[in-house]
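Design review, sub-item: ligand-bound model
Attendees: FS, YL, KQ
YL presented the inputs for the 2-acetamido-2-deoxy-beta-D-glucopyranose complex:
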Amino acid sequence: MYLSKKSIKLLGLLLILVCTLVRCETQQIAAWRQQKNYAVNALYRHADAASGVALLQKLADSGVTEAHADLLFARLLGTGMTQDLETVAKDSAALVQEGEARAHTTQALLLAHNFTKEPKENEELAIEALYHYTIAAVKGDPLGEIVLAGHYARKGDCDSAMYNYKKAANFAIREISEEIVMSVEVKPYVYKEDYPKGAPKPPSPIEFEYLANLARYGDAQAAFQIGAVLSSGVPGVAKDQKQAAIYLQQAAKGNNTQAMVALANLHLHKMIEPNYAEALKLIKTAFQYGEVGAMTALGRMYMYGLGSLRRNLVEAIHFLEISVANGHLEALYLLGVIYDGPDGPGNMEDAIRLWEIPASLGHVHSAFRLAEAYRKKMEKAPATTLKLGSSYDVSERLCQKAMPLYRLVAMAGEWRHLMEAAYLDFNSGLHTQALLKYLLLSDMGYSEAHVNAARLIDNHADQVYEDENAMSTQSLLSWKRAANSGSPVGHLKLGDLYYYRQDFRKAITYYENAGDLPEALFSLAYMVEWGEGSLANFNAAKTMYESLAEKHGEAQFPVTLTLARMEIFLFLNNTCGIDLYKTPVNDYVIALIDIENLENFTSKLFVNSDSSNWDLLVMALLLVLIFFMLVVRQNNH
Ligand SMILES: *[C@@H]1O[C@H](CO)[C@@H](O)[C@H](O)[C@H]1NC(C)=O
Ligand SMILES: *[C@@H]1O[C@H](CO)[C@@H](O)[C@H](O)[C@H]1NC(C)=O
Ligand SMILES: *[C@@H]1O[C@H](CO)[C@@H](O)[C@H](O)[C@H]1NC(C)=O
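KQ shared the predicted structure:
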């Protein structure tokens, strides 16, 4: 059968039309997908969450069903919209049926922390939660992948842990800019006391305002600091590269060389509309002043042939090596990338050596490259066990190196901004919103989140958990996680818990691991004094109290008080033969000066240590004590 010319033409036209429609459709879907990714990432950032929700709403209305699960997730965390746990609990079950990855994550978080209010045991809830996190992971939700990876890591299954962290890391690395170093990021605690010694704290609004004022009056260093804060974004101060550039510009005009490099880097990393000529000018000026960062930036420009500079690896290596000699992390990273590259002069081994330092310090891109390098070696390594006296598995050892690096990258994903968002919620009094965010981060293994979640449960969760038991179960869970992740305050809390349960041996172990926290040292001394968990030893306890006061100035007051009490005990024992450590009246005395009371006002003191009422308090307490002792005497006679 022959087709007429006309019908061939028509057929052709029809074909073209269909193709265009299909292409349009796939293009539309691709565009949606991209928009959805953007919107989901926006949910993690406090400043952008509302716009993320608006975009998701639009996508949902135009028929992108996946967006519903993301909206539900936003409602669960209270990010970009009002939190509503009951609605979420109802709707997520239905969405889970439809198989949305994020719906499984939502369901998992609800179950893991008993928000579905089912009369189930902890074990059972944990297993069901893990089941949903696992499905979320399999369906490609990076949050689920991280939770699952953590589960395998704790079980000692390195391969599975690495596999899941790697998946999340691959997703995360795309959004992570090359200068990010995780260890210098500020991780806010809701309680000031929880900051480990020397850890960076977010600037208070007053400090920030003060710096901004200094900058306004032309202080270049202050302008640089404000610019740096705005560029990285810290809790309470939203990231704003354009504003950052203005401050950095001002600082650069005041001859601040760090600001010149920082501003140049905003251009080089395309965080503002890049102007490579401007960047080069800044770098050259900073270079003349001998600023190390300028050499790295210049190396980067040669390495990638940015602006008017032609790509020139010899020049790049020259400048990067100067920076490397000065210990600049990013230079180590870039030099490694050149060595590992196809036209670099080195090989992967050289690159690995260079990346090891910045990776160990938390430089995310170095960690990622290094993890990939180890994994490549793993694939080549013989899987058999070598017998060399003791047996060890090459592949297992490489996994042990690669897995924590992938973890570092995975933890640096955009979702890490939920930590700041939660902190801001807490500051605005939105405790339940903060709690849900911290609980998710805690499930994902962020150690600061364990402590913050536990604090919020202890102090603000009574509306969430009507059931007293459910609440204390959750509190214990979070403190246990905190302790397991090495948090001193976690150990202290578990020590207290076991102390009240009269399990003194366990209490002592936890107190001893509480990293020299004054409250823990105090409890240990107290236990020695009263013979709890060991034989009572008056003098040893005294020494312990004294050394505590020497180590921690802020413990001076409770220690003085305690030592005074011990003197009275000793005096009564020696002169009247009343051993207050043995008499039944103990209970009263303890009730009066027991650890909880002391803890209460020591904790107040630690917060408010310049209070001038100490002596009054001491006297009042001693008076009450003497009164009790008189009562005891009367009873004895
Ligand atoms: C910056 O340095 C230049 C050249 O060294 C100098 O002329 C200028 O006065 C300096 N500006 C400030 C604000 O210190
Ligand atoms: C979960 O909550 C319910 C109701 O509030 C309670 O009966 C149950 O004991 C809780 N489960 C756990 C493990 O705390
Ligand atoms: C109290 O006195 C008794 C008997 O004199 C003595 O054995 C005991 O060690 C004394 N206790 C303290 C704490 O000094």
